[in-house]
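In this supplementary section we document a worked example of the pipeline. Step one takes a protein sequence of length 162 as its only input; no multiple sequence alignment statistics are reported here. Step two produces a three-dimensional model, which step three serialises into structure tokens for compact storage. The input and output of this example are shown verbatim.
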Amino acid sequence: MTITPEKIQEEVKDIVEATTEVSITDQEQFEFFADVLQRIKGKTKELDEKRKDITRPIDSSKKKIMDMFKKPMEVLAKAEILIKTEIAKYAITVPTYEPVNGVSIRHGKKMVSYDIKKLPKEFVQTVVNEAAIQAAINAGVTIPGVEVKSVLTVVSSSKTEE
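The serialised model returned by step three reads:
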């Protein structure tokens, strides 16, 4: 069976139509949308499996191709670094070297170390580890400077069309 975007759209059409406007005000609607939610999860799982059925062979082929080229590319990269290092050493020790067409040497500067205490603040970036904060909150730790609110998370099993 050929899978087309149109067929995929047709498969989810009824679910999409059922969810254009969602308002739950009574038990009957709650149960209806709980069922719709499970069908959405089921359809998502089904479509993901169809997608993977198509992409697995492509991914496998890509991996084989990437693996085939990986080692030679690594060898070439190491050789390039070695030769560039030796050319740079030569250019430093023999400042009157004759340039070679296709190879140029640029003079520049590179940071080798720094003292974070002496750096101006525009060069220092603070990164907050949100994953660690969330893990601590989940473990019941109170963290100064972090506002916490209670949330409800709806979890649903999947239901396939019968």
